[in-house]
Amino acid sequence: MAKVEFGETWTYESIVSALPGIRVSKPLAIGIQLAVFEVAVVVVWAVYGFPTETLFAGTAAVVVAAIGSVEMLRISRLVRSERLPPAYPRLLFGSSIEVVLAVLAYVAFLTYLFTTGAQESPALLERLFGPEPPVLAVYVTLLVLWDVCYRIGTAWWASVVALWRSVRYRFDEPTARALRRADLEVVAFATAQLVLVPFVRSQPVIVAVLVGHVLAVWLVAGSSSVLVTLRARTDTTDGHGDGAVARE
């Protein structure tokens, strides 16, 4: 496979590849991410003597972020393994819209957390960190939450672009099969985020938004998967000989 250049990758992949003087495989980068975040969560939990639920909640968020990283690599590998119309991978990887969506999700969550959420009883931060959350605990929490929100933004964007692709183009059977797998990876990607629901159960607004987000991704990515299958071309010989050329 040809070397992937900047502008052809998700922002997450670009960051991993851009560290000067450091060359690590993407699976190793995910392992480092998981280890560093989990160590930070455990240290904060141990130093401040937080309840066990706090440790479990932090670990769940770290695992969701790591699963998101794995799924992003799986989706990108499936997409890049096929010969596709340039517009699709360019929108998926090079637009950075997933970052914009992540910022919107993150700001919305923080706005709720420090306004309406802070007035509910018990408030989420108070339940996890006590009435006066330590600065270090809040810092680690916000850092991990950003990672989760970035994965949520990516799931949104991947599902929307997938549906656009399935509506606009037709593919031969092998290509459609790979794209269907990519769509189902997006569904799995979103489903993993439901692990967080038990830890925000006292916040009905967050629960409703999180579950609604997952259902929306299921609907959009699932519709894309069905559509790309129904519109698949059965004639894999189109004069180009590779059986992987899209048709509008």
UniProtKB/TrEMBL annotation:
This is Uncharacterized protein. It comes from the Archaea. InterPro entries: DUF7530. The keyword Coiled coil does not apply. The chain crosses the membrane at residues 28-48, 54-70, 91-115, 135-164, 184-200, 206-230. Keywords: Membrane, Transmembrane, Transmembrane helix. Pfam families: DUF7530. The keyword Nucleotide-binding does not apply.
